[in-house]
Design a protein that fits this description.
Elements lengths: L1 E7 L12 H8 L4 E9 L9 H8 L4 E4 L3 E4 L2 E3 L2 E3 L2 E10 L3 E8 L14 E9 L2 E9 L5 H21 L27 E6 L7 H7 L15 E2 H4 L7 E5 L2 E5 L2 E5 L7 E6 L11 E5 L2
Parallel strand pairs: 1-2, 10-11
Antiparallel strand pairs: 1-17, 2-7, 3-7, 4-7, 5-6, 8-9, 9-10, 11-15, 12-15, 13-14, 16-17
Helix pairs in contact: 1-2, 3-4
């Protein structure tokens, strides 16, 4: 059994409003593969903590990668010298198995007057799982509106259309062996099987989710001609991952989702959210694969 997690950790702030990154780490520790959103580095709101480093220290049995889509200068002077520091925000992937390679994809955004809008990104990782190599996309779509989310999904689908031809981060024969581009490694795998997980900031029945499952042949392999498959729908589950009072009424919404390539649908054994967990304002979304 392989256990996958999608979790927006709200930079360590729980539903009770208290900052405690260790609570989020305890949830992540239960996962074999975890797609995490809203990880801070050097923000005053989270005690200027380097959260990627702290999470890795709290999760010594997991490999990890961090992709700061949002990056601002946070340097300062100390004793007449510049201390270089970046204020960053983005997704992170944890895995019990090696992340063979990763890529960061900046997502389209619109300049805003109100409300605030921030740069988001998707982190793609090729993971050497016991089921074989699988590409995992950890993403966080915009909160400001449908137009921007649709543009972000279209951008990611365009990347996936070209990804088989592009292949892994390097390919071919090293014609400069003295520079050791390959470090003695074989060409890395690409992996056609894929899982997209994250905070999509939209609910079931939305245009955005329909776009992800549309029958568009964005993959040249015939197995993928039907688009991605919504894991919640495939598992026959009804759930929510977020609870908020809106216009005086409490809304239970599923904003976090998982999608798989059609070849992986048969491996899905369960999809659920842990609504008893209060380590964030989102609930952890889980999926198990039967191997």
């Amino acid at each position: 059994m392989m256990k996958l997690l999608s979790y927006n950790i709200q930079y360590g702030f729980g539903a009770d409003g208290h900052y405690d990154l260790a609570r989020a780490a305890r949830v992540i520790a239960k996962a074999d593969i975890a797609a995490i959103q809203e990880v801070d580095r050097h923000w005053s709101r989270s005690d200027f903590d380097d959260q990627p480093a702290l999470l890795q220290a709290l999760l010594p049995d997991h490999f990890s990668a961090y992709a700061p889509g949002f990056d601002m200068d946070a340097s300062f002077h100390l004793n007449g010298r510049i201390v270089n520091r970046r204020r960053q925000f983005g997704p992170m992937i944890f895995s019990r198995w090696p992340l063979i390679w990763t890529r960061t994809h900046l997502l389209p955004m619109l300049r805003m007057i109100d409300p605030i809008n921030t740069q988001t990104c998707a982190l793609e990782a090729c993971i050497a799982t016991p089921m074989g190599a699988i590409r995992v996309m950890c993403l966080h779509l915009a909160h400001v509106g449908v137009e921007e989310r649709l543009a972000q999904i279209a951008h990611l689908q365009s990347l996936q259309l070209r990804s088989p031809a592009a292949g892994p981060p390097w390919s071919g024969t090293d014609d400069e062996p003295a520079r050791n581009w390959t470090e003695g490694q074989a060409e890395p795998p690409f992996a056609a099987s894929e899982v997209w997980m994250g905070d999509f900031n939209c609910e079931p029945g939305s245009q955005e989710l329909a776009m992800l499952t549309a029958h568009t042949p964005y993959h040249p392999d015939a197995r993928y001609a039907g688009g991605l498959v919504n894991a919640t729908t495939a598992a026959g589950a009804k759930l929510h991952t977020h609870s908020k009072v809106i216009a005086g009424a409490r809304r239970l919404r599923q904003l976090d989702h998982m999608f798989v390539s059609p070849d992986l649908v048969g491996n899905i054994s369960n999809v659920w959210s842990d609504v008893a967990e209060d380590a964030s304002d989102h609930y952890p979304l889980w999926m198990t694969f039967a191997r």
